[in-house]
UniProtKB/TrEMBL annotation:
<keyword id="KW-1015">Disulfide bond</keyword>
<keyword id="KW-1280">Immunoglobulin</keyword>
<dbReference type="InterPro" id="IPR013106">
    <property type="entry name" value="Ig_V-set"/>
</dbReference>
<dbReference type="GO" id="GO:0002250">
    <property type="term" value="P:adaptive immune response"/>
</dbReference>
<feature type="signal peptide">
    <location>
        <begin position="1"/>
        <end position="19"/>
    </location>
</feature>
<feature type="domain" description="Ig-like">
    <location>
        <begin position="19"/>
        <end position="119"/>
    </location>
</feature>
<dbReference type="InterPro" id="IPR007110">
    <property type="entry name" value="Ig-like_dom"/>
</dbReference>
<protein>
    <recommendedName>
        <fullName>Ig-like domain-containing protein</fullName>
    </recommendedName>
</protein>
<dbReference type="InterPro" id="IPR003599">
    <property type="entry name" value="Ig_sub"/>
</dbReference>
<dbReference type="Pfam" id="PF07654">
    <property type="entry name" value="C1-set"/>
</dbReference>
<dbReference type="GO" id="GO:0005576">
    <property type="term" value="C:extracellular region"/>
</dbReference>
<feature type="domain" description="Ig-like">
    <location>
        <begin position="142"/>
        <end position="239"/>
    </location>
</feature>
<dbReference type="InterPro" id="IPR050199">
    <property type="entry name" value="IgHV"/>
</dbReference>
<keyword id="KW-0964">Secreted</keyword>
<keyword id="KW-1064">Adaptive immunity</keyword>
<keyword id="KW-0732">Signal</keyword>
<dbReference type="InterPro" id="IPR003597">
    <property type="entry name" value="Ig_C1-set"/>
</dbReference>
């Protein structure tokens, strides 16, 4: 019995694995164009001194983009940037604290994005991402349109759809909120990702499904548009009383 126990214990030791690295980043950062901002990333469960660190960013409505790679200290610590990344982007590592920092100097509006740090340890591990928001500049206020349910839905469906369209706004970090009467609701809401247009502005749509009986009860429905970095609200409201089908 003792031999079986010892063999089981040895097998457990040989098959145990280290916990996966966890990369911690602030949820958001705010910066004024023309200034500098530093985005930190702390790695848990893994020593970074022998690891290469990478950063990626994703602008709203676009695919992820590689920014830079910082070789491990043990490999000389050289820094490589993406083809369209200038020396405005710098990087530092603090191996004893398992922390790295991406600094963006002379920030531009186009730098508004989600920034992800990354480490490879038998697999690729990403941080949770930091949203970089611009402040202290004039926002592009969107054109907001709110459409009632279609006649076909109203005459043949138990659930009907209200459609809210926002276009001509920048940057793309926004919230679209629905209210029924004076109360905010998330039930029945579907919202698209922002889409970058050829003029570098964004469009976005949000939909609210409600029972046709609620619509016929002449309740007021409101669609609100809000930049995450500002308190400015754009609102449109509609009800059976205010639209003509």
């Amino acid at each position: 019995m003792g031999i079986v126990f010892m063999m089981s214990l040895l097998l457990l030791c040989f098959t145990s694995v280290s916990p996966n690295p966890v990369l911690l980043q602030p949820e958001s950062a705010f910066v004024s164009p023309g200034t500098s901002v530093s985005l930190s990333c702390t790695v848990k469960n893994r020593d970074i001194s022998d690891r290469w660190l990478r950063w990626y960013r994703q602008r709203p409505g676009m695919t992820p983009e590689w920014i830079l790679t910082h070789k491990s200290t043990n490999d000389g610590g050289a820094l490589f940037r993406g083809s369209e990344i200038t020396d405005r982007f710098t990087h530092s590592r603090n191996d004893p604290k398992n922390t790295v920092t991406l600094t963006i100097n002379n920030v531009e509006l186009k730098d508004s994005a989600v920034y992800y740090c990354s480490i490879y340890a038998n697999a690729m591990f990403l941080g949770n991402g930091t949203e970089l928001h611009m402040i202290d500049w004039k926002l592009q206020v969107p054109s907001l349109e709110l459409f009632p349910p279609s006649h076909q839905e109203l005459t043949s469906a138990e659930m009907v759809t209200l459609t809210c369209l926002a276009h001509g706004f920048y940057p793309g970090f926004v919230d679209m909120i629905w209210k029924v009467g004076e109360s905010q609701t998330q039930s029945g809401v579907t919202t698209s990702f922002p889409k970058l247009e050829s003029d570098n502005s964004y469009t976005m749509s949000s939909y609210l499904m409600v029972p046709v009986s609620d619509w016929n009860a002449k309740e007021e429905y409101s669609c609100l548009f809000k930049y995450k970095s500002q308190d400015t609200l754009v609102q449109k409201s509609i009800s059976l009383n205010t639209c003509h089908l």
